[in-house]
């Protein structure tokens, strides 16, 4: 039998999900594991979102629908964008699809094998994984703890070339929690315009900012020329398993991405889309209340990590992760992750899963119970003392 295609040779998958699989097997064997490896939440979707989903099912919203997303949801996204970012996109600028699919289809639409994609290091693992299997060259821009892990837009310039097709920016950042300032975002938008390249602005954590505000580089072109916003419901609305996201971008690019989506997926189940409509209409006081809960968990996690010998952790301003510096333990990121899983029953992600710049760090999602955070940090502290 003949082998697989060249395309498959670049597949590397998502390391967080590989860790999840290992940990699930450990739990099935009866082991207790404190789980911080995936960007998921102990909180459920809001009750009104669940009720909206039930109602949609009962009303028969279970058939094929427009591959771009039902009109009511796209109109709701327009309303939401206008309220948050100050401009109103046209419904033709919106496509409803899972957020990871947006990363894949975006790269497919604007780049060919050998072209370059630029993003920060450390950066989200899916950027690395998608670029790898599509045969794209990744060009990374280091970000540093001393600068709050914020991307300096001017550091992009020497890394851009005639082969650059796409810049990806994430603020707040996964895995670091870094949040760019208004001036930095404005400068990024200017560079993208000057260099005439596409920008994928990953704003999936826009609701999860604890100090300061969210700023979008869509401020200049309103997503009509070269900026594409990636957003969704997994993080801000605790709907990770619903796999509901959306892209806002130039009409012609959104049309191409939508064709790709309909070729592979046909459509997002309509009852899930009605849940999205309900989520976008969540009262602001509920969102603020949940963010206060997130902030409390963040503060606890960072405080407890900083009590462990050999570990320091800067306070992240956004997202849902602590990115802890473990260089004081004398272990590499991978060694530390393996050690605490085996000796302390704590599952976390080596920083190198997010690029070489993550060496010396580990990522933990802190959306867990206070009891779990305290117990896990105590277990690591004891294990490291032995």
Topology, please?
Blueprint: H1 15-28, E1 34-35, H2 47-58, H3 71-85, E2 94-96, H4 99-110, E3 116-121, H5 125-133, E4 137-142, E5 164-170, H6 182-195, E6 198-202, E7 227-232, E8 245-248, H7 251-264, H8 270-280, H9 284-305, E9 321-325, H10 333-343, E10 346-347, E11 349-350, E12 361-365, H11 370-385
Parallel strand pairs: 1-10, 3-4, 3-5, 5-6, 6-7
Antiparallel strand pairs: 2-8, 7-8, 9-12, 11-12
Helix pairs in contact: 2-8, 3-8, 4-5, 4-7, 9-11
Note the main attributes of this structure.
3-stranded antiparallel sheet, 14% strand, globular, Aspartate Aminotransferase, domain 2, 2 domains, Aspartate Aminotransferase, domain 1
- The CATH class name of the largest domain reads Alpha Beta
Count of helical stretches: 11
Beta-strand proportion: 5-15%
Largest sheet, strands/sense/barrel: 7 strands, mixed
Low-confidence stretches: none
């Amino acid at each position: 039998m003949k082998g697989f295609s060249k395309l498959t040779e670049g597949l590397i998958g998502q390391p967080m999900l590989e860790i999840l699989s290992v940990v699930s097997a450990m739990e099935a064997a009866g082991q207790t594991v404190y789980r911080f490896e995936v960007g998921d939440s102990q909180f459920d979707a809001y009750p009104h979102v669940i009720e909206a989903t039930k109602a949609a099912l009962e009303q028969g919203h279970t058939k094929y629908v427009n591959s771009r997303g039902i009109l009511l949801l796209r109109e709701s996204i327009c309303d939401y964008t206008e309220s948050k970012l100050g401009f109103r996109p046209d419904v033709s600028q919106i496509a409803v699809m899972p957020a990871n699919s947006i990363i894949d289809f975006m790269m497919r639409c604007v780049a060919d094998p050998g072209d370059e994609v630029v993003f920060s290091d450390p950066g989200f693992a899916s950027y690395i994984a998608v670029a790898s299997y599509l045969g794209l060259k990744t060009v990374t821009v280091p970000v540093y703890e001393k600068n709050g892990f914020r991307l300096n837009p001017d550091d992009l310039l020497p890394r851009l070339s005639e082969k650059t097709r796409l810049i990806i920016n994430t603020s707040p950042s996964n895995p670091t929690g870094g949040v760019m300032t208004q001036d930095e975002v404005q400068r990024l938008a200017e560079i993208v315009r000057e260099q005439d390249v596409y920008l994928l602005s990953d704003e999936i954590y826009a609701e999860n900012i604890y100090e300061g505000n969210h700023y979008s580089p869509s401020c200049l072109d309103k997503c009509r020329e070269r900026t594409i916003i990636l957003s969704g419901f997994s993080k801000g609305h605790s709907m990770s398993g619903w796999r509901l996201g959306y892209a806002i971008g130039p009409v012609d690019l959104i049309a191409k991405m939508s064709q790709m989506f309909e070729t592979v997926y046909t459509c997002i189940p309509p009852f899930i889309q009605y849940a999205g409509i309900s989520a976008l209409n969540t009262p602001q006081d509920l969102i603020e209340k949940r963010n206060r809960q997130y902030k409390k968990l963040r503060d606890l996690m960072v405080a407890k990590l900083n009590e462990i010998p050999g570990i320091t952790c800067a306070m992240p301003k956004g997202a849902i992760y602590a990115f802890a510096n473990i260089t004081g333990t004398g272990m590499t990121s991978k060694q530390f992750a393996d050690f605490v899983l085996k000796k302390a029953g704590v599952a976390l992600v080596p920083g190198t899963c997010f690029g070489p710049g993550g060496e010396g760090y580990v990522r933990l999602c802190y959306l867990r119970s206070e009891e779990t955070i305290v117990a896990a940090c105590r277990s690591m502290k004891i294990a490291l003392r032995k």
